[in-house]
Design brief:
Blueprint: E1 7-11, H1 22-31, E2 36-39, H2 46-58, E3 61-72, E4 75-82, H3 89-115, H4 120-128, H5 136-145, H6 152-160, H7 175-184, E5 188-191, H8 201-214, E6 218-223, H9 230-239, E7 243-247
Parallel strand pairs: 1-2, 2-3, 5-6, 6-7
Antiparallel strand pairs: 3-4, 4-5
């Protein structure tokens, strides 16, 4: 795959649960040699919108993107929307609904923490005071900073993860609905980190089939921490006629095991998703 750009199509900023401001992320990506970058914050395009000017000045092709939470047979699923129109009115309404759901869920989780004898109201205020949409990652960090748990992993294990006393399952829209939002906004739907979901082999194949039938175009073949599953992800892409995407799922530069700019290349048998767009990536010359 000689001549391919250095790509990262899955990153997060402080507009959702990332550590860096959008401009800071772009500068770090430029320093890492990334040429094609998507900011895919959870259920918001604010990070892309804030980073456009910085990306243009840095010589990076910035892809308008988002990572939308969905549900498939009661399983939470994440779908990346790439090369979409952030200003599409229907998409804006859909993402506003997702944001409202996140905010309401956070209130309910913190109420459960209060019932457990923890300072739920104070934890809620801490989360709400931070920039970006409220996520359980923010709440886990607040629990850590308050000295209630030693690590954010402990927060999920004791309070926030599935099966714990404060866990509240999210009522996300169906997979086909979310893919429809992305397609209607002119975007490409890519299934994020497909090996990460707790599914049997048969269920995963059904998920991929339903995703393709709903209008999905790509699957994330290369992502942070999936070295052992890359060949399987490539097989799924080829087997279901999907393009392949590359994304670090970068959140924080302190996570040294998952840096920007150190992703493997797609296997030759997989068609890169950036060749499926049929769109210019920016005012720069289109990629070959």
């Amino acid at each position: 795959m000689n001549g391919e750009p250095r790509v990262d199509l899955h990153t997060h900023t402080a507009c959702s649960d990332g550590a860096l401001a959008p401009g800071e992320l772009v500068l770090r990506a430029a320093g890492a040699g990334i040429e094609l970058l998507a900011i895919t914050d959870h259920d918001t395009t604010a990070g892309f919108e804030q980073a456009e000017a910085c990306a243009a000045a840095s010589g990076i092709d910035l892809v308008p993107g988002v990572e939308i939470s969905a549900a498939w047979r009661a399983q939470p699923i994440h779908v990346l929307g790439l090369w979409l129109d952030p200003a599409a009115p229907a998409l804006r309404r859909a993402l506003a609904g997702q944001a409202a759901h996140r905010a309401q869920r956070m209130v309910r989780i913190c109420a459960r923490l209060t019932a457990l004898g923890l300072p739920g109201a104070r934890l809620l205020q801490t989360v709400q005071a931070r920039p970006g949409l409220p996520t359980r990652a923010h709440l886990a960090q607040a629990l850590t900073e308050a000295g209630i748990v030693k690590r954010t992993e402990d927060a999920f294990r004791r309070y926030l993860g599935r099966g714990t006393a404060a866990h509240i399952a999210a009522d996300w829209p169906a997979l086909e609905v979310v893919v429809g939002w992305i397609v209607a906004a002119g975007g490409i739907a890519s299934l994020a980190h497909p090996a990460r979901y707790r599914l049997s082999a048969g269920a995963r194949r059904r998920l991929l089939g339903d995703f393709k039938a709903a209008g999905g175009t790509a699957v994330e073949v290369i992502t942070g921490g999936n070295a052992a599953e890359r060949e399987a992800c490539a097989d799924w892409a080829v087997g279901f006629g999907l393009a392949g995407s590359i994304g670090s799922d970068f959140h924080d530069p302190q996570h040294v095991w998952n840096p920007l700019g150190r992703l493997a290349k797609l296997p030759d048998r997989v068609t890169p998703v950036w060749r499926r767009t049929g769109k210019p990536h920016s005012t720069k010359q289109p990629l070959p």
